Amino acid sequence: MRFMESIILILALVFLIGCVQPGIDLEGNQPEVTKFGAWAFKKENKDIVVIVDTELALRRKTEKYFPLSIKVANKNLESLVLDRESFFLIDENGKRYGLAAVDEIEQNYDKLTPDHKFKSQTGLMADQLQTGFELYQKADSNFFPQTQGAARVIDVVYIRWKGFMEDLIYFPMPDGGIEGKTLRIELDAVELKDPIDIPFLVK
Q1: What is the mean pLDDT of residues 118-143?
Q2: Domain of 39?
Q3: DSSP-derived secondary structure for 20-35
């Protein structure tokens, strides 16, 4: 009888360990990045969650510019304000790249329409229910409108408490390309104590 009880206890412990999501920092500091689906990478602390999806980036690996699908959820901050200066790409050599200018993309990149079509068909980082923020309020965000004059650019995104934003953001292609590279997004805002660094692999 005791043998069976021991087996049941061991199985229960194995089950509980398996249910713990790796990379989550219970102290609310800077956790490791966790894989989120086939293409996305997630980093979370007590205040915000950031998800970076690379599926579309890999389809644009030969272009001068490439998109990343980004999602930011505000869990505990009174508010979070993000603008074009909030996002930086850092390559394997430590070189930093700011967001491309809107007119650069409109003049030198001919994939905006298919990119937005892809986004509308697949959504960003799959269904919202899978992110756990289906009850959060979505903030208006449009850093790079689909076509020139089709919609206004929204350069400053206000994310309320229990709100989120999702958008496509574009960077210049780094030296050496992106395929097989470990890159990083640095997200910063006045409301954050420290910038959040999100490593991801384009593969």
Answers
A1: 70
A2: 2-201
A3: SPTT--TTSS-PPPEE
